[in-house]
Amino acid sequence: MRAAETTTTRTGRRRAVPWAVLGLWIAVIALVGPFAAKLADVQHDKVTDYLPASADSTRAAKIEDKLPGGETTEMVLVYHRDGGLSAADRKTAAGQVAEITRQHELIGGAPEGIPSKDGTTLMYPVASNEPGANEAQRDKLVNDVREVARDEGGLSVDVGGTGALATDSGAVYDSLGGPLLYTTVAVVAVLLILIYRSPVLWLVPLVVAGVADYMSMGVAYGLNQAFGTTVSGQSSGVMTILVFGAGTDYALLLVSRYREELRRFERPYEAMVAALRGCGPAVLASSGTVAAGLLCLLAADLNSSRGMGPLGTVGVLCALVAMMTLLPAILVIVGRRVFWPLVPVFGSTPKQRRSLFSAMGSSAGRRPLTVLASGAVLLGALALGSLGLPGPLKQEDSFVTKPEAVVAMETVAKSYPGQGSQPIDVITPQGRADETLAIVRATPGVGSAEKGRTGDGWTEISVFAKSAPQSAGETATIKSLRDELKGSYVGGDSAQQIDLEVTNARDTKIVVPLVLVSVMLILIGLLRSLVAPLLLVVAVVAVWGASLGIGGLVFEPLLGLKGTDPGLGLLSFVFLVALGVDYGIFLMHRMREESLAGAEPTAAALTALRTTGGVIASAGLVLAATFAVLTNMGLVQLVQLGFVIAVGVLLDTFLVRTYLVTSASVALRRKVWWPGVLSREPDPAERTAPIERSIGQSDRTP
What we know:
Elements: H1 2-36, H2 47-50, H3 56-66, E1 73-80, H4 87-103, E2 114-115, E3 121-128, H5 135-148, E4 156-160, H6 161-196, H7 203-227, H8 233-264, H9 268-295, H10 303-334, H11 356-366, H12 368-383, H13 404-415, E5 424-429, H14 433-442, E6 446-455, E7 458-465, H15 472-484, E8 489-491, H16 493-527, H17 531-554, H18 568-596, H19 601-628, H20 636-668
Antiparallel strand pairs: 1-3, 1-4, 2-3, 5-7, 5-8, 6-7
Helix pairs in contact: 1-7, 1-10, 5-6, 6-8, 6-13, 6-19, 7-8, 7-10, 8-9, 8-10, 8-19, 9-10, 9-16, 9-18, 11-19, 11-20, 12-17, 12-20, 16-17, 16-18, 17-18, 17-20, 18-19, 18-20, 19-20
């Protein structure tokens, strides 16, 4: 009687646990919800928000904000007709500029038009302090000006300048949120339907990933409020990608193992407990590796990179928590029927068939050295393509589709050769303003320079270079000014781009070794070996080089991208190393288990590939597809980052992980586990008994 009561009580508790977990998650989302909605309010995408406080251009911008009138919004109204401007065109331009002057308070009053020598273009520099540092008011001012300055009778009118460019950049970043999320969800949904071949099952991990994404937004907002973490359009977008990509990977592993356990256990609750015990340690280790790699970005000096580390970590950890708690609870509540029509029946045996990965493993096992050498040569040849990467990305080339501000900039550059259209801002102590102005005018490459606002002990000097913005000539001029003007700060858009490149180069030297060391230490602790972790790290570094090389072959020749984002190398390295090692853990951990169970080295390697290959392939496809979503966004830096990571994940999944790591393991045999106990030939009498497998996967695709 008591035994029956105990069994009934235990059964009741087991039924209550999933519902309790579901209720807890509902409470968490209700608590986090108000904060998640505020994440967009703290997102900033100005270049000065990305740069470190110590950068020359950042200091100049901060001082400018404190000058009378606050931050200045600078625009250029560009009137152009290919055949030459007529008298009516000039009258139209003058009338529109007069209307703008009546509507807004412009610095210096009504501007004077500057005609081009060929007579095709008329340029009006316009500046106003009306918005100050308020981005919303700046955008309103720019849009108001554009409402007045419109094309008329074949006369093209474009509003450019730094203020207009900032507005256009902000519009692109603002448009990322919705399309990025919807496209990611659609891509993951299609892949899950194809993988699971079920009309219901695909929806469960997708909904859980959506919950994790919502939670990550609330946590990211909390980090911003508590620690001032930088939130940019790029970092928040990547966080969403990681939630859906990594979260779906964890779901694939868990669901695949859960399906197996349902054939061994009659009750879904017991099957889920066994599944969590089996794949949980590997999922925890892999997510920990990704988080550790991303957190190395905290050592970066660039605010945008440093902010991406915590946000990416938040995304991975929120995905982990959701997939290891909420997903199991929902699956247990709905029971076996969620797998319909391929419901795993208790006591049944899955159909055995020769899988693709069995065939791939067999080919790698027969000639491991040949396969390894061929793969290394291929990756090395692909890496040479990185020599073809286009030069540094100019600001006007940062958009996939050119906005109005960039069109205006190109028109000015063509119609006013030898004359800069973008000011270089020099901020100098007020008492040395005249001396500084004289030095500036005498600096080679300077076309003109005039004093501007004065206040709080500083004077602003607007400098125009003779060369086009972000050209080699203008860059040389900015560097000369910085060399000559000690105690002054040289800023402006072009100076900010120079500081971005310098800071990215510094960050790469610091962060890359940190990532390698942290990942190596985690792998050594997990695999109890030095050789196996080194093999995995070398493999993912080779994948990174090959992926950049493919980018060099594609970016400019095929996609027409005219520059390379300065942060591409560092960010792609961090993500590919962290995520690539993620899959390596699944494979090598299973290989280690097979070896502990007494399997010979070759058999252990081939069994690990055969049993984990299907899940790793599915997970790799999902992760690559989610990052590939970035290639559909409107910013070149996101297109390039998404392309390189997606290609790298595919290379890692279908070439490195399946062929090269397996071949190297077969060739090294027990040496792959040196100096651990598995590296020594076991005494037959002391063989380790088979242990509970932590990543048991079937030959079938999950």
